User: Fold these one by one.
Assistant:
Number 1:
Amino acid sequence: MKSATQFPDLDTSRISISAHYTGYIWYKHGLSAAGFATGTGRLANAALAPINAFLRLVAGADIDIFLLQRHLVIDHHVCELIEQHGVEQIVELASGLSPRGYRIKQQYPHIRYIEGDLPQMAARKHELLERVGLAAGHDVVECNILQEDGPTSIAAVLAGLNPSKPTLIITEGLINYFDLPVIRSVWARMAQGLKQFPQGYYITDLYPDFVDHPSYRYVKMAQKLVGVFTRGQWPLHYSDDTAIRNGFTEDGFDQVDVLDPASFYGQLNLPEVKIKTLVRIIRCKASR
């Protein structure tokens, strides 16, 4: 497997562009404080409105629906890990304008919550949280997931935590910006880093390459759209749930659950669609 240092031309800053859009979507649907919504996010929402309307018409779902499905299912599992598995430390990487840390700290004040992002976004997020209310034990630090070592690496962020407490890493809306060999090197380092804790967990979303999906051609259109919107590629990873599970196991995780948001219809307050879902939530455990 290639290491991240073999991909020097990768630019993670483009991810922050979509962060404005998703930040506005969370606010639009009552999941966030007003401070998380930016003018750029509002403009992006307006620009994509006709495309979302077209996707609802021809495919039965739009970009926002799958964003909400993944966000709410991730939230559900984060709360479950806190309440049932004793997680006390959470690291959300490339958190952008996500309100999750803000909400989690309100609901679970004892949790230590670290948000890691690139310098510009980290500075903006810290300023935003100070305005809406930055709780004790909630920090924003600089982190570049592609750095294998050094002060902004994932290892450095984890080194600042208490090694005796169960710990969770979260990524949302991140991994499909990278080719599979690149992101697998990141997952391998996450798995290794989480093994220093008594229980280490990782939750992420992933958009697979479901070639047999009835709306696959519209998926490919949306894929190209996201690529244009973020000035780069947006590759799809793995062809089915089994391939996903095998891949994460090979990267060092001992337990891998591949979750379809549709399995939570009727349990969680998710937007439901008649077509097959397009996103998967991955919940992993790394043991010592």
Number 2:
Amino acid sequence: MSYKSIIVNLAVDASPMPIVKVGIELAERFGARLIGLAAADVPPLVAIGDGMVYEGEIMQIQRTEIEKRLAELRAEFERLVPASIFSEWGQAVCSPTRFLSISARSADLIVTGSEKGENVFRAMDVGSLVLGIGRPVLVAASNVEDVMAKTVLVAWKDTREARRAIADALPLLAKANEVVVATIDTDRDESIRDSLADIAVFLEHHGIMARTELIAGEADGDQLLIFARSIHADLIVSGAYGHSRLREWAFGGVTRSLFEESGINRFMSY
């Protein structure tokens, strides 16, 4: 099992170099094609100082500016990606989240940065992406240029989402120096130990030797992140937990903490 097609998302308001370099390193490691994507949209209405709203000329100016920026990102992507990697480019004047969601059907893995933006027309919504695309998403830590995944923490919970995340992460886990499967033990249930042991056996069958850990404390993201740092993990693999409510994503505590974290690489599936 491997990743043969990797999408890297270039945010229009961020420097493309770090995330493109992450994509290049992963494409080289797995012998994958690399697809660079970028998108931004024009707000449907533009309010000006006196409260009036115009649609025509101002929207066209904004569209021209977006197209110019997308052309710049394409040039930088094509400059950075070596000829040894088969690469493609895609861009659109539309919602970044929607464009990535549509394009994800042609990829094994989506790679994006940790940049957060309030402008939904210019910034991708990581939460909506992870919960909606049916593909794993690797969210790179801020300003990193590679995701070596030498020490990987698998955040285990006996759920469909966690099982999916482990299966999706197998290519990365197989190349790690150390894999730690950990769960937060809140009720001293013996079945937790049994599920950890089963996952260790599952990974062993894939040639991955993992150790298991029970983390004492409350089942929240802070406990998980403290443990990740204590073992010097450079990647956290986790299922994503949430549901759509009134067209907004509502997340569980651990998932919310992982979305907000920007100092550690995160690999998430739903």
